[in-house]
Amino acid sequence: MLRWGMVIDLDKCFACQSCTAACRMENNTPVAGKDQADMGRAILWNEVLPFVEGEYPNVHTTILPRPCMHCDEPSCVKVCPVQATFMNEEGTVLVNYDRCIGCRMCTVACPYAVRYFNWYAPEWPDALKEHLNPDPEVAPRPKGVVEKCTFCVQRLRKAREEAEAEGRTFNATDYTPACVETCTGRARYFGDLNDPNSLVSKLSHSPRAFRMFEELGTHPKVYYLKQG
Amino acid sequence: MEPKNQHTQTILAPIRKVSKGDYLLWGALTALLLSGLVAWIWQYIEGLGITGMNRPVYWGVYITNFVFFIGLAHSGTFISAILRIAGQSWRAPLTRAAEAITLFSLPFGAGSIIIDMGRPERLLNLVFYGRYQSPILWDVTAVSLYLLSSVVFFYLSLLPDIAMCRDRLTNVPHWQHRMYEILALGWNHDSEQYHRLEKVLDGMAVFMTMLVVTVHTVVSWLFGMTVQPGWHTALIGPFFLLGAILSGTAAVVIVLALLRKAYRLEKVLHNGLFNSLRKLLITFVLGWLYMMIAEYLTIGYSNMTEEMVVLTDKFSGTYATMFWSMTVFVFVIPLLIFIFKGKNSVGWMVFASVLINIGMWMERYIVIIPTEISPRMLHVMGQGSYLPALPEILITIACFAGLILLYAVFTRFFPIIPIWETAEELPGHAHSTKTSPAPSSASSD
Ligand code: SF4
Ligand code: SF4
Q1: Does A83 touch chain B (CB under 8 A)?
Q2: Which residues pair with A147 in a beta bridge?
Q3: How confident is the model over B338-350, as pLDDT tens digits?
Q4: Per-residue pLDDT, B173
């Protein structure tokens, strides 16, 4: 069984935000506008956050790209009253937008704050509207539901369809989320964590590897490689 | 034969006339209720964006109201069920007044959850796809069960009095009399009927007591089951429950004082009742203090990083003013009043009770918001902020107005003091509120 996971090398990330932009174009997240963004309502499935430790003059800044952690024991799935948020057979945590009742229990339960709520109906400036990703799986979400990073599941579907059309068996390396494909510093790796020979699985066992808030028992499938 | 009660006339008096003042009050409350409804429709059309909520403060005053109203509802069940089991017969005159608070605040508690939903039209998904792993479903189950059994409990204990309205109030409008006839279900004050009624009420009291503990604990688990700092504590259940009973009992004091003033019920709702409630309130206020100390000392002493962020925010940060005024409102002033001024003084009792309820609303708010403001990702996301916006304020006011409206209308159509439970003599068996050792005497024969 496949188990998709990601490794992010913090040594290689230089905070260019390409992943954030690629994610927006791939997944049709709406444009919030300055006022809404100031209120903390921008929807960014992927963010690159500065993690500042210490005080001047002894400051140490880590840059932290942050997708959904796709936890193996997700806090969000547990609390959803209608199973609108669920984990598929390959370990990816998804949201069923047609079923979500907008109670936001999952958003308060996720310790990584990666879930976003549609406060209004989504909007885009006209110029951007023409370039929305036409894939029906990323059709704009209606107001009142929760959304978040999906590891670009639509790309997985496409990769499988392509393999089938070409008459070959699907290989785990055929599938890459938009952020991984774009990453300028090649800091992101993606693949099957259950395959002991895959790059991600090897990197996840590196002595530099760590996961965020490991003590919470959520078992994220996104690993970071320590800076330094 | 009707139950003999020397106060029957006094108790039924408010039902005979609906005054101009009543219409004015009802009109004003309806207007407030409607403005809340308009705000909700506006919110439904536009989206929850018109509220002050944001990321990371995904829950705001709607959830605060939910917790508060469910807490207020505990008044009735406490007085009529728990004190019934404990054999506290002094409670008889105020049972219905307290139960009515339960009955009329529950809809606004449950309603607050629906108002808070991004997609209220999908409410039935909870039935079609409901998953018991989620605390929300525990809440939905517990609260609907509570609402249902409160209605039954309330209605059953109202039966004999409706029958009395039917027999005595012959000059009320025709529809009103018809209503009594239908609702009385042919009750004819048979002694056998009274025996059965007491038996059923005793049985239900046990069930309601278990339910009341469950309901508010489950409400708190909405927060306690997450791993968020400030919420994830085993004490949150008992703490919520105690707070609920405290604010509920304080609400009873307010309601009783208003009723006896408005409907001249001083003889029935005598000072002794307030003195008994005063003792209860002293106990609860002290219990609340105990919980506060147990909770915050444990967190503060162990000094865990994330927990301390939330704690400091309450003690000396963004929410310090609110936190300390809450402590003064719920604990300091009321306790001083109860001990030094409250005896035989309804005015002081009401003042303290109002403070307690304002304080308890703040307490709910302070449990919910500071944890959200400082999520675990705080150091990377920065601190959040939250201020309720106009629609949230309108809807909150509307909830309170609705509760008062239901209450005011009810008291003009039904006796708010249970005539049969306060009667000197009941058909079939001598039953005196003054001498009866335990109200459960009926079930022992
Ligand atoms: S990071 Fe949050 S949203 Fe993603 S799987 Fe884990 S708990 Fe769920
Ligand atoms: S907001 Fe939607 S996905 Fe999240 S818990 Fe509620 S119903 Fe489930």
Answers
A1: yes
A2: A116
A3: 999 878 788 899 9
A4: 86
Whether the CB-CB separation of B79 and B95 falls below 8 Å is answered with yes
The pLDDT of residue B419 is above 90: no
Cα-based angle B114, B117, B123 (whole degrees, multiple of 5): 60
Q: Candidates A44, A71, A79: which one to mutate for ligand 1, based on the most atoms within 8 Å of Cβ?
A: A71
| Cβ(A115) – ligand 1 distance below 6 Å | yes
Question: Would you call A81 and B131 a contact, using CB atoms and an 8 Å cutoff?
Answer: yes
| Domain residue spans of chain B | 8-18+53-386
Quote ipTM for the complex: 0.91
CA neighbor of B97 nearest in space, from B396, B431, B414:
B414
Contacts for B441 with CB less than 8 Å, ≥ 6 apart: B429, B431
Q: Where are the domains of chain A?
A: 4-225
The mean predicted confidence, pLDDT, of chain B is 88
pLDDT in tens, B31-83: 999 999 999 999 999 999 999 999 899 999 999 999 999 999 987 788 878 88
Options 3.20.20.20, 3.30.70.20, 3.30.390.10, 3.30.1490.190; CATH of A4-225: 3.30.70.20
Chain segment A123-142, per-residue pLDDT in tens: 999 888 888 999 999 999 99
CATH topology of domain B8-18+53-386: Formate dehydrogenase/DMSO reductase fold (1.20.1630)
